[in-house]
Design goal:
binds zinc ion; 5-stranded parallel β-sheet
Length: 323
C-alpha cells in the first residue's frame, strides 16, 4: 500500500503529496471526515512518504522505514488513541516526552492522535502547548469524525484536511474488483458503510452477511433475547453500536420500501422478499418511533447509561410484527 494506491481520496492525497514536494507541509494537521473513511490509513501512508529511504513521489513500501511503519514497529511513528473512555493527560504527556527526543532513525517523527475528540480537557490543554511550539523534526496528525468537539484553540493551530465518503456504487465495484469480494457482500458492505472504504475494508474479513443476519434474527425473531446480546457488562459499547447500526439499516430498509424506493438500494437486499412482506406490517409512525428509539440508545451509550431497558422496549415493540 502507498498513498497513491488509496482509493477514493484523490483530492486529499494529491494535496499531501504536493505539500511534501513543495516543502510546504505543516507541523500539525487535523484530518476531518466520517468514521472509517480512511483517515488513519492516509496518516500512516503520509508518515511513510515523509520517511521513505528511496522514493520521492510516493513511498516505496519495501525499504526499512516503510516496512517498519507497515508493521507498526517504527520507533519514530506513534499512534495515540483512546485509553478506556477518553484520551487522558498521561497519553499526551507520553507524546510530549517522545516528541522532544531526537528521532531514532526517521527524518520526521510522526504522531497520530486518533479520534482526537476523545481528548479530555486536561489532555487537550497539554497538547495545545506542544502545538504552539512544535519541534521541527516532528509532525502531529489529529484525526476526528466530530470536528465540533475539538477545542477551537487546537483546531486553529492545525492545517485542516477534509475527507469524504465515496459513491456507494463505486465502492461496491471497488470491493468486487480490487478486493475480490462476492457481489452480495460488496453490495451490503458499500451500503452498510455508506461509502466509507476504511470501514468496509475493516469489516471485509468477517463472515459479514451471516453475521448481520444473525444479529437481525436474534433481535426480531427470538422471544428470549440471547442473554448477553445487549448486556453492557458482557459486550463493549462499540459492539452494541455496531449491532444498532445493523438494526437501523433493517428498519430503514422497511421504511424505504414503504416510500416506494427501488429494492436495488436496500442495504439488506439479500432479504428483499422478507422486507417486502414486512413493509405492510408496519405503519410509518411505528417505524419512525423505532428509529428514534435506536437513536436515543446511541445517546445513552454516549452518556454511559445502560441501554438495556430501552432495547428491551424496542424489541417488544417490534418482534410481534415479525412473527
Ligand atoms: Zn520506502
Amino acid at each position: 500500500m502507498s498513498l497513491k494506491n488509496i482509493i477514493g481520496q484523490d483530492k486529499v492525497i494529491n494535496f499531501l503529496i504536493a505539500s511534501i514536494n513543495n516543502d510546504m507541509f505543516a507541523s500539525s494537521y487535523l484530518f476531518i471526515g466520517p468514521d472509517g473513511v480512511g483517515k488513519t490509513l492516509v496518516a500512516k501512508e503520509f508518515a511513510k512518504l515523509l520517511n521513505c529511504e528511496t522514493a520521492s513521489l510516493d513511498a516505496c513500501d519495501i525499504c526499512n522505514s516503510c516496512m517498519k511503519i507497515n508493521k507498526n514497529i517504527h520507533p519514530d511513528v506513534h499512534v495515540v488513541e483512546k485509553d478506556g473512555s477518553d484520551i487522558k493527560i498521561d497519553n499526551i504527556r507520553q507524546l510530549e516526552r517522545d516528541i522532544h527526543l531526537k528521532p531514532f532513525e526517521a527524518r520526521k517523527k510522526v504522531f497520530i492522535v486518533k479520534d482526537a475528540h476523545f481528548m479530555n480537557a486536561e489532555a487537550a490543554n497539554a497538547l495545545l502547548k506542544t502545538l504552539e511550539e512544535p519541534p521541527k523534526d516532528s509532525i502531529i496528525i489529529l484525526t476526528t469524525s466530530y470536528p465540533h468537539r475539538i477545542f477551537s484553540t487546537i483546531a486553529s493551530r492545525c492545517r485542516k484536511v477534509y475527507f469524504s465518503s465515496i459513491d456507494i456504487e463505486k465502492l461496491s465495484s471497488i470491493l468486487e474488483n480490487d478486493f475480490h469480494l462476492g457481489k452480495a457482500d460488496s453490495h451490503y458492505l458499500s451500503y452498510f458503510t455508506e461509502g466509507r472504504l476504511g470501514k468496509a475494508v475493516a469489516l471485509k474479513e468477517k463472515e459479514i452477511l451471516g453475521e448481520k443476519n444473525m444479529i437481525i434474527d436474534d433481535f426480531i425473531n427470538s422471544e428470549n433475547l440471547r442473554q448477553n446480546f445487549f448486556d453492557l457488562d458482557a459486550k463493549n459499547k462499540d459492539d452494541i453500536r455496531y449491532n444498532l447500526d445493523i438494526l437501523m439499516t433493517w428498519f430503514r430498509d422497511i421504511m424505504l420500501l414503504k416510500c416506494g424506493i427501488d429494492t436495488a438500494s436496500l442495504v439488506n437486499s439479500d432479504r428483499r422478499k422478507e422486507l417486502l412482506d414486512l413493509k405492510n406490517e408496519y405503519k410509518m409512525e411505528d417505524l419512525l418511533k423505532i428509529m428514534h428509539r435506536i437513536l436515543d440508545t446511541y445517546t445513552m451509550l454516549d452518556y454511559n447509561i445502560n441501554p438495556k431497558f430501552s432495547l428491551e422496549f424496542l424489541r417488544t415493540k417490534t418482534w410481534e410484527k415479525h412473527r
